[in-house]
Amino acid sequence: GAVVSQHPSWVICKSGTSVKIECRSLDFQATTMFWYRQFPKQSLMLMATSNEGSKATYEQGVEKDKFLINHASLTLSTLTVTSAHPEDSSFYICSARVLLLEQFFGPGTRLTVL
Amino acid sequence: ELKVEQNPLFLSMQEGKNYTIYCNYSTTSDRLYWYRQDPGKSLESLFVLLSNGAVKQEGRLMASLDTKARLSTLHITAAVHDLSATYFCAVLLRAGGTSYGKLTFGQGTILTVHP
Question: pLDDT at position A2, please?
Fold first, then answer.
C-alpha cells in the first residue's frame, strides 16, 4: 500500500537553531504534499500545500520565512523550521496525495525546542 | 470558509455499549474521511465516504454520509477497550471552492472505553 515516511521521528534542538524534516512517499509519486501541525489534544492544522517544482501555498497566519517548504521531487518534500523557538514545539505531520485521491499520512515528527 | 464540527469532543463509554459520533460541515462537499489517531501516533485512515447515502462498515465501526444534511456519523457498536483513541472527520472541499483539494479537520473526539 501507499507509505509515507518522515524523518526524523523526533528531534530536540536548542532555541535559535534550524531543523529540517523530510517527508517521502515511498511507493508512489505524489502530486501534492501537505504539512500539518498538531498541538497536544488538538486537531490538525494545515500549514501549507506544496506541489512538485512550484512554490508552496501557505495558510493564513503561517509565516513563510519561518517554515520553509521545498518540494524537490515527486517523492520528497522538506519542512525547515528556521530559528526555532519553544513555541514551535509541536507534532508535525506530512501527507502525500496523487491528484484528488486519498491522502496518506506520515508517522509524524515531534519537535521539542529547548 | 469551510467549518467542520464534531460532537461530542469527549466520549467515555462502557465496554459493550453503542454510541455515535457526529460530524457536521458547513459547505457542500462530496468526500468525507474518518481517521483514527492513537496517542503519539499519526493518522490511520478508517473510511472514505464519496456519495450521499454512503455507508461503510469495518468491524465495530460504521460510517455514513448525508450530503444534503451535511452530516456524517461514526457509529460504534459494542465498544471494546481497543477502540479507545481520538477520531477525526475531515472534509474535502468540493472543486471550485477557494480551498479546492484541501482537507479540513473536525476538532476530534477523544474516545475512552472503560471495562
Answer: 84
Instruction: Quote the CA–CA distance of A32 and A30 in Å, as a whole number.
Output: 5
Residue A99 grid cell: 491528484
Strand partners, A89: none
In this complex, the residue of A43, A49, A93 whose CB is nearest that of residue B102 is A49
CA of B115, closest CA in chain A: separation in Å?
23
Pairing outcome for strands B109-114 and B10-14: parallel
With CB atoms and an 8 Å threshold, state whether A107 touches B88: no
Do the beta carbons of residue B60 and residue B87 sit within 8 Å?
no
* Mean pLDDT of all residues in B1-8: 92
- Show contacts of A66-71: CB within 8 Å, 24+ apart: A67/A35, A69/A35, A71/A33
The SS3 assignment for A105 reads strand
CA–CA dist B105, B91 (Å, integer): 7
Q: Which amino acid is at B22?
A: Y
User: Which residue type sits at A35?
Assistant: W
Q: Which amino acid type is present at position B34?
A: W
pLDDT for position B60 = 97
